[in-house]
Design brief:
Blueprint lengths: L2 H11 L11 H20 L7 E7 L5 E5 L10 E2 L4 E9 L5 E2 L1 E2 L14 E2 L3 E5 L5 E5 L2 E2 L2 E7 L18 H15 L3 H22 L16 E4 L5
Helix pairs in contact: 1-2, 1-3, 2-3, 3-4
Length: 233
């Protein structure tokens, strides 16, 4: 999905450019920034299920594991992988097959903690720390783990591509056009584009969200990438 095409279609929707015309370099940079904000917001809302990744790792008997990239100073997390946001599911395997864990709030994970015990954790909570996220369990995870979570988007570049299926194109164009109208105070366009945008987003959610209950049975069913974490610290 070409970024420039999305920017120009959105600009046309708000009558900033004529059909077939190109946007200026300054306008393109501004719209790329708006598009980045939209991608981050929709990602946080679990809109892009197709960007899910499956990671397997060793729980190493710990009740908390850090996740993220190795830092410039050499600091290494327990699980070396892109830092998760929108953690969709966690499953554990202690020799009898994969079992889905139940998510709880970080404030409540202590209610399920059995100090000093290890084996099969039943509950997890995710803390979106920086530079590492922290995965908390209600007991030491002396087992294999499978995580499914959304991948972060690279920053959009004017002549680049977005790693998304074409089905998302219309929803992104309309969402960007609506954000442009809000940004420029174009109230008539805001009112006109809002129902179109909501309808396009709802059509995608209807297809991607209906499979959510199944994801805990097989956390990797929607994964476009399978990553096995090796060489843990």
């Amino acid at each position: 999905m070409r970024v420039r095409e999305i920017l120009e279609k959105a600009a046309y929707k708000t009558n900033i450019i004529r059909a077939g015309a190109s946007i200026s370099g300054e306008e393109a940079v501004h719209l790329c920034g708006l598009l980045d904000d939209i991608l981050a917001e929709l990602s946080a809302d679990n809109f892009f299920n197709c960007r899910a990744t499956l990671i397997t790792a060793d729980g190493r008997g710990k009740d908390a594991l850090t996740i993220g990239e190795v830092q410039a100073d050499g600091t290494t997390p327990d699980i070396v992988a892109p830092r998760p946001y929108n953690l969709q599911s966690v499953a554990s395997n202690y020799g009898a097959g994969w079992v889905a864990m139940e998510e709880t709030d970080l404030a409540d994970i202590g209610s399920y903690t059995f100090e000093g015990s290890s084996g099969h954790p039943e509950f997890f909570a995710y803390e979106e720390g920086f530079p590492f996220g922290i995965l908390h369990f209600n007991r030491g995870a002396a087992c294999q783990l499978r995580l499914v979570y959304s991948l972060p988007f690279p920053r959009a570049t004017i002549n680049g591509e977005l790693p998304l299926p074409q089905i998302y194109s219309r929803a992104l164009v309309l969402t960007l056009a609506h954000s442009m109208a809000v940004d420029k105070g174009m109230d008539d366009d805001v009112a006109r584009l809002l129902p179109e945008m909501e309808k396009a987003q709802a059509a995608i959610r209807a297809n991607t969200m209906k499979s959510k209950p199944l994801r805990l049975v097989d956390p990797g069913f929607c994964s476009h990438e399978n990553i096995t974490i090796m060489g843990l610290r």
